[in-house]
């Protein structure tokens, strides 16, 4: 069980909170840290709440960085955080291409 | 662990009920089986906040929510839920489509809803991106859409701030009665949670839990599938649907388009973890391009799937249970629970506190399923 009311300490501002971590969606380190203090304890919740890793690169750049920030904030090891799910398509694909899954389409 | 009210399931229904209860000062605990808050249909749906096309039995809930809650929800939750109230266009291109839309419109007008049939020309005046294939549409100007992810997480965040206690990774497997009333929920871990009232809002999995106290709600998991595109400059803000229901969706604040898909095979999806099928996104792209040719070059970046709790008569059970004092059912939302969720959270808090509900729920009772 994961108790969402457990004490993880106060949010303490840091000098590099304005640093952009997810470049596609322009999400900063400070936004991610604040989200953890608002109860977003998993990488999946962070992305649902903030859109980290949900842009064109689908987290290929920022996944590790977000994981490191969230684990530090929670005081757990990064490998204790379950990775968020990757999904199809592998690369962004135009509708007119995706639509042609049949010969006569 | 003891609370006044225990909520099983942290979807938007459970989180909204927790928020309303915590605001009243009620001691509330929410138990979630998965590792993530709001892991079912709440974060996987197309974001419609619509009245048109709804069953008359749940129409009062959504009308209440649109009038009283949705417009202020972002402020209430300190979270941008991206609510837009710019109307719903349900599109058709054939005579058969027109008959379907005429029927839906007629039923909605009888319920007092401002919805009407328009022709292709008027539809294109409302949305200039529509193709000439569109020959008819129903138009409900007070419908809209919102962001299901931020709305769900926003309710969670605010309920938690107000003191609601959330526990995830804890699967409830059994309810137990004490002196005739449902008082305990037992987890697979062996932990036992006690409360005066237990709200069961665990999606399709509510059925097995309710069965442990002899109550059954006839519902099945049915797949829902969704895609999201890259962000493009704002084009239009209406919620879209079609007479065939082959796709529905809208453009978001972010600029991306979110489209719900429908291949027709959803009730027969493989059980277990919900996964996107290989055919639905492609089929939906063909449908979308038929009505919106200018979207053909826009890139799909992600697809996902989830289970909805499809009830036998396609409307939810929101009800106390005569045989089980203390138990309140909130399940069977059948894929259209998001738009009504703010009102459902409110009425659940009222049911749990034995207050009169803001909306009459008598058509949504648990004992309405009778043999023919």
Measured as a percent range, the helix fraction of chain A is 25-40%
List the total number of helices of chain B.
9
- What is the topology, as strand order, of the major beta sheet of chain A? 2-3
For the record, give the distance between the C-alpha atoms at the N and C termini of chain A, rounded to a whole number.
Answer: 49 Å
Rounded mean pLDDT score of chain B? 96
- Gross geometry of chain B: globular
Report the major sheet of chain A. Answer: 2 strands, antiparallel
Please name the fourth-level CATH homologous superfamily of the domain at 2-65 and 148-219 and 312-368 in chain B. FAD/NAD(P)-binding domain
Q: Do you know the CATH topology of chain A? A: Arc Repressor Mutant, subunit A
CATH topology of the domain at 2-65 and 148-219 and 312-368 in chain B: FAD/NAD(P)-binding domain
Strand content of chain B: 25-35%
Amount of beta strand of chain A: 5-15%
Kindly describe this structure.
- The complex is a heterodimer of chains A (105) and B (372).
- Chain A has helices at residues 29-37, 43-50, 63-74, 95-98; strands at 2-3, 20-22, 27-28, 93-94.
- In chain A, α1 (29-37) crosses α3 (63-74).
- Chain A contains 4 helices and 4 strands.
- Chain A is of the alpha+beta class.
- The termini of chain A are far apart.
- In chain A, β2 and β3 form a beta hairpin.
- Chain A has a single domain (20-98), classed as Arc Repressor Mutant, subunit A (Orthogonal Bundle).
- With 372 residues, chain B is an alpha/beta fold.
- Chain B is 25% helix and 28% strand.
- In chain B, the strands form 4 sheets. In chain B, strands 1, 2, 8, 9, 10, 11, 17 and 18 form an 8-stranded mixed sheet that branches. A 4-stranded mixed sheet of chain B has the order 5-6-4-13. In chain B, strands 14-15-12-16 form a 4-stranded antiparallel sheet, with helices on one face.
- The termini of chain B are far apart.
- The interface between A and B is large, with 34 and 47 residues.
């Amino acid at each position: 069980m994961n108790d969402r009311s457990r004490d993880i300490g106060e949010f303490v501002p840091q000098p590099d909170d304005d640093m952009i971590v997810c470049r596609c969606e322009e999400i900063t380190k400070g936004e991610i840290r604040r989200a953890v203090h608002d109860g977003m304890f998993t990488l999946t919740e962070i992305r649902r709440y903030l859109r980290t890793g949900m842009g064109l690169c689908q987290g290929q750049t920022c996944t590790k960085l977000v994981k490191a920030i969230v684990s530090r904030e929670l005081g757990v090891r990064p490998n204790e955080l379950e990775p968020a799910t990757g999904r199809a398509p592998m690369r962004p694909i135009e509708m007119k291409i995706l639509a042609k899954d049949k010969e006569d389409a | 662990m003891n609370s006044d009210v225990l909520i099983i399931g942290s979807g938007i229904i459970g989180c909204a009920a927790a928020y309303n209860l915590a605001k009243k000062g009620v001691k509330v605990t929410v138990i979630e089986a998965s590792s993530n808050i709001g892991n079912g249909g709440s974060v996987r749906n197309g974001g419609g906040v619509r009245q048109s096309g709804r069953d008359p039995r749940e129409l009062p809930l959504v009308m209440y929510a649109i009038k009283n809650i949705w417009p202020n929800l972002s402020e209430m939750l300190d979270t941008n839920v991206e609510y837009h109230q710019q109307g719903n266009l349900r599109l058709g291109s054939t005579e058969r489509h027109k008959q379907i839309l005429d029927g839906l419109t007629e039923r909605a007008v009888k319920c007092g809803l401002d919805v009407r049939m328009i022709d292709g020309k008027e539809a294109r005046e409302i949305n200039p991106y529509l193709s000439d294939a569109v020959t008819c549409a129903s138009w409900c100007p007070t419908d809209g859409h919102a962001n299901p992810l931020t709305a769900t997480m926003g309710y969670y965040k605010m309920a938690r701030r107000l003191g609601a206690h959330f526990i995830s990774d804890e699967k409830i497997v059994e309810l137990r009665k004490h002196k005739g009333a449902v008082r305990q929920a037992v987890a697979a871990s062996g932990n036992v949670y006690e409360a005066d009232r237990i709200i069961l809002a665990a999606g399709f999995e509510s059925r097995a839990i309710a069965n442990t106290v002899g109550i059954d709600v006839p519902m099945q998991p049915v797949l829902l599938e969704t895609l999201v595109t890259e962000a493009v400059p704002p084009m239009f803000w209406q919620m879209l649907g079609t007479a065939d229901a082959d796709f529905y969706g809208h453009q978001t604040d972010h600029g991306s388009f979110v489209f719900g898909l429908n291949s027709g095979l959803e009730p027969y999806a493989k059980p277990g973890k919900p996964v996107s099928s290989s055919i639905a996104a492609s089929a939906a792209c063909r449908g979308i391009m038929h009505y919106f040719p200018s979207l053909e070059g826009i890139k799909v970046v992600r697809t996902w799937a989830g289970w909805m709790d499809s009830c036998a008569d396609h409307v939810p059970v929101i009800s106390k249970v005569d045989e089980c004092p203390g138990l309140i059912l909130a399940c069977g939302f059948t894929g259209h629970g998001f738009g009504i969720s703010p009102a459902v959270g409110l009425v659940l808090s009222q049911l749990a506190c034995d207050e009169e509900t803001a909306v009459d729920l008598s058509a949504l009772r648990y004992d309405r399923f009778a043999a023919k």
